[in-house]
Amino acid sequence: MPSSPPSNLLKSTGNGKLGEQNLHQAAMMKRHHGSVPKLSASSKALILLPLVLLAFIFFFVYPREFELQAMMSACSSPPPGTYAAARLAEPAVSRKPDFRLLIGVLTRADLYERRHLLRMVYGLQLASRSNNNNSLTAHVDVRFVFCRLYKDDQRVLVPLEILVHGDVIVLDGCEENLNGGKTYTFLSAAAEIFADEPYDYVMKADDDIFVRLPQLVESLSGMPREDMYYGATIPCSSMDPFHEYMAGMGYVLSWDLVQWIATSDVARTHSVGTEDMLTGKWLHIGGKGKNRFNAKPAIHDYLNPVPVDQCEHAFTPSDIAVHRLKSNPRWAETLKYFNFTAGLHSSKFYKFDS
C-alpha cells in the first residue's frame, strides 16, 4: 500500500502556487521511489538490436561456417597457370602417407659443402610436395650418416649442423671406412634408433647419387612391404635381381630385413668387406630378400665421355637416380637437365646470364 505524502507538504502557507509545487514534488517522489520508469522507443531498439544480431549469428551463420570457409577459399585461389609455389602457402589437405622411407646418406664429417648441396636438392623436393606433376605420397626422411668425430673442428661444426638441421646420425661403433663395417653399423643402429616408430623401407645411399624422390616413391609404391630388396643389379650387364646383389650407390631394404640384419649373426660376423656385395651375401646365406626388384636402367651411373661399363648411360626423363656425381659441374649438369631451378622468379636482387 503506497505511503501518503508528508502532511507538511500539503499545508498552505497562504500561497496557492506553493501548494501546487508541493503537490508536484510529492508526485515526483512517488514515481521515483515506487515505480520503474518507462523506456523510450529508441532505448528499446538499442537493447533489442544486439540480441537480434546474436540470434542471427547463432541460427544462420554458425551452422554454415564450413560452407562459408570453402566459398572464401575458392574465391581466394590463384588463377590457373599461377606458379605452383604460390599455392603451396595454402594449408594442404593432410592425408596418410602410403609408406615411410628413411634414406641414409653415408658420407664423411668433413664434407660440409656436399651436405649443403644435398640438403638443397632433397629439401626442395620434400618442401614442394609436387614435382613435375608427381605427388610425393610417402613420408620421406633424409639423414646424413658418418662415424665418430675425430677432429676438434668436427666436434664444433657438426653439432652446429645438428642444431640447425637435425638431420645427422653419428655412429659410435665404426671407423670412417665404407668397407670397414659402416653399412652394417648404420642398418643395425637404424633398427634400434627407430624401433618405436619404424619405417617401411630403409635406403642406403652414397653422397654422390642424385635421387629424384617422386620417381623413387612412385617406383616403391607397388612393392611388397616385407622381405624386399630393391636397387640396380650387379654386374652391370645383368638385369636379373637374383643373379648377385644390388649396387651400393643406392639400394632399399624393407624394415623386416633391417631388423633381421641388426640381430643376425650372419651379418655381424661378415660386416667387413665390399659393403654392397656383403649385403647380398647376408641375404643369400640367410635365405632372405625373396622379393627382389631391379630398377635399371632408371638407376644408373653418370655417362662419361668414354663409358666405363654398361651401368652408365645418358639422362632420361624417367630416371630415378643418377650416380657418380663426383664434382659440382656434374651436379650442375644433372640438375639443369631435370630443370631444378625452373621455379626461380626474376628479381632485382639477382641476374643470371643465359
Describe the structure.
Its EC number is 2.4.1.-. One of its GO terms (molecular function) is hexosyltransferase activity. Belongs to the glycosyltransferase 31 family. The protein is an alpha/beta fold. Helix content is 41%, strand content 16%. The chain contains 12 helices and 14 strands. The chain has helices at 16-34, 41-61, 65-76, 84-88, 112-128, 154-165, 178-193, 213-220, 255-263, 265-268, 275-286, 328-337; strands at residues 100-106, 130-131, 134-135, 139-147, 168-171, 201-206, 210-211, 228-231, 233-234, 245-246, 250-254, 291-294, 299-301, 321-323. The strands form 4 sheets. It has a 7-stranded mixed β-sheet with strand order 5-4-1-6-11-8-12. The longest helix is centred in the N-terminal third of the chain and has 21 residues, at 41-61. It is extended and about 100 Å long. The protein starts with 15 loop residues before the first helix and ends in a 17-residue tail after the last helix.
Outline of this structure?
Belongs to the glycosyltransferase 31 family. This protein has 354 residues and is α/β, with parallel strands linked by helices. It has helices at residues 16-34, 41-61, 65-76, 84-88, 112-128, 154-165, 178-193, 213-220, 255-263, 265-268, 275-286, 328-337; strands at 100-106, 130-131, 134-135, 139-147, 168-171, 201-206, 210-211, 228-231, 233-234, 245-246, 250-254, 291-294, 299-301, 321-323.
Question: What secondary-structure arrangement, pairings included, does this model have?
Answer:
Elements lengths: L15 H19 L6 H21 L3 H12 L7 H5 L11 E7 L5 H17 L1 E2 L2 E2 L3 E9 L6 H12 L2 E4 L6 H16 L7 E6 L3 E2 L1 H8 L7 E4 L1 E2 L10 E2 L3 E5 H9 L1 H4 L6 H12 L4 E4 L4 E3 L19 E3 L4 H10 L17
Parallel strand pairs: 1-4, 1-6, 4-5, 8-12, 13-14
Antiparallel strand pairs: 2-3, 6-11, 7-14, 8-11, 9-10
Helix pairs in contact: 7-9
